[in-house]
Task: structure prediction
Amino acid sequence: MQTKHIVEAILFAADRPMSVRQIQQVFPELEQPALHEIQAAIDAISTDYLHRPVGLKLLASGYRFQVREGLAYWVSRLFAEKPGRYSRALLETIAIIAYRQPVTRGEIEDIRGVAVSSGIIQTLLEREWVRVIGHKDVPGRPALYSTTRQFLDYFNLSSLSELPAMEELVNIDFSHTHQPPLQQEKSERPQTDQSEADTLKAAESKTE
Amino acid sequence: MQTKHIVEAILFAADRPMSVRQIQQVFPELEQPALHEIQAAIDAISTDYLHRPVGLKLLASGYRFQVREGLAYWVSRLFAEKPGRYSRALLETIAIIAYRQPVTRGEIEDIRGVAVSSGIIQTLLEREWVRVIGHKDVPGRPALYSTTRQFLDYFNLSSLSELPAMEELVNIDFSHTHQPPLQQEKSERPQTDQSEADTLKAAESKTE
Amino acid sequence: MIGGLVGQQMEEPVAPLALVLGQPYQDAPTDLYIPPDALEVFLDAFEGPLDLLLYLIRRQNLDIFNIPIAQITHQYIAYIEMMDSLRLELAAEYLVMAALLAEIKSGMLLPRPQDSEEEEEDPRAFLIRKLQEYEAIKKVAGQIDLLPRQERDTFNVMVDVSALSVARPLPEVQIKDILLAFQDVLKRVEQLTHHQITKEPLSVRERMAAILEKLDGSDSLAFAALFTRSEGKNGVVVSFLAVLELSKEGIIDILQLEPYAELSVRVRTAS
Result:
């Protein structure tokens, strides 16, 4: 049997994204094609489906067949449940975790300026969009959160670098000006480590 | 958008066989193609996939994309590779049903503070760990769930009262015991250290 | 999308607000033609004090780096006072921000001691950094919401494999996993003081399910039929508690058709 044929069947049957390596593992030990052979099969399959309404998509945890964007208008009508809408609070929380990871709850609250409800963290953990990767060595040992591959998969991204770019923060130095009204003083300096450390310190003092 | 294109997307996204009529219903009322048009699309799609490892199959209740028979060997290896595991949400749900039965989905959601997906309830029903024993006389007449004999059997329990009482449970420290905290140790399933370690890690990382 | 949405939501309540803010207001605006709950909606539209402050700044096309502190502080505090006079519950964070603004304002009026060795951070810089960071996060959060996502824009392909008769191993679960999960639930519930789980013994919950099962399919059962002599006194007590609990939860009715007649029990149905 042709490798390409089997790879295609595996990708269709799998209920999760499959990495090239995982596909290789599905073959019995002595029959495993080389990784580059599997990659070649994947590329060929991708091309075959280029003009079909389903196609292979590379996500963070591997390749997956998906119904293409643009068909949601019809396909979503198949399902009784409406797709979840996410609150701004949840989106801001996941954004902070994604861009500032690893981050504690206290640090998230510091950036948003409000308390983060346990429901949001719970929902994110449950959806496996975030996970605890350790504990910060400060009093209370708060959990450090980071995003997961599943989070990227869900938003059709293959890596964190595909997330929309965040505006660079600009540092302002007021130490030499005693005049209250600030005139255009936009410096182009990116955030320095020092200011990051300050933010963290502020965050730490806030937690518990 | 072409009817054929949409029909193909619907057939691929559906988690059940779809009759020609059901496919028609997925289209918004004013845009529904005639039945013969949908049938023609289905026939054309069938032909397109003739030489692929997946194909359209007519079952008793409609059409469904299936992996072709000759590929069972690889597909079964795909599933053997990773037996899967239940989500935190599912474990919490079965625990709440065990301790709070008879209980409605709404009550489970109240206790958890997070929505319970129908998939979870479906999985538990399919595994025959829970069943519907009645309906609550409130608007919507929600189903009342309870655990089953099979649930007790799976965990080698002769009755629910062998589970620790709620007051005790709060104080049991699972991190120091390698035995399940049941009155009698009855489990015959091997408990690997690895899975225990994982569970504990998950538990630890969640508790703040 | 998010930005636009919030903008829309804010259109209505904002107009009267600006009116109030435009002129120094004295008393609680009793003649306010938007009801207080509309203001609550307004408050809900903001994700916190930084969000509100950003809104006040952006509404006037001001530059974050060049905020007229005095003016913004006035607006912010007027807003807080109005909320307060309407006795709307205001999160403490809003008051903290008001205090910070007031501090910055007062700090700017006073001359700075020249000899201060310690490089104290200018509170404006602190505030500006927070505003900047929050605004940046707010923007990307909105963009993340627009990313094509599963279940809304893309759908997983579901191909049937049942015809291949491949056995799918079911996940294994240890009883400990379930107990741990429930322990977590209890811990979470304990943190929310308003939600109290009553702790009936498990035998009672189990019996409740068993009684419902017995009632399933029959119109009603004699009260006595719910008790089994062989279970002894404890069994009777458990059954009795289960019946009371089911009745309390409104799942069954206990009926007596006439005085001294035998009690019967039936599942409550839509009357």
Remarks:
- The mean pLDDT of chain C is 76.
- Chain C has nine helices and four strands.
- The first strand of chain C starts at residue 155 and ends at 156.
- The radius of gyration of chain C is 31 Å.
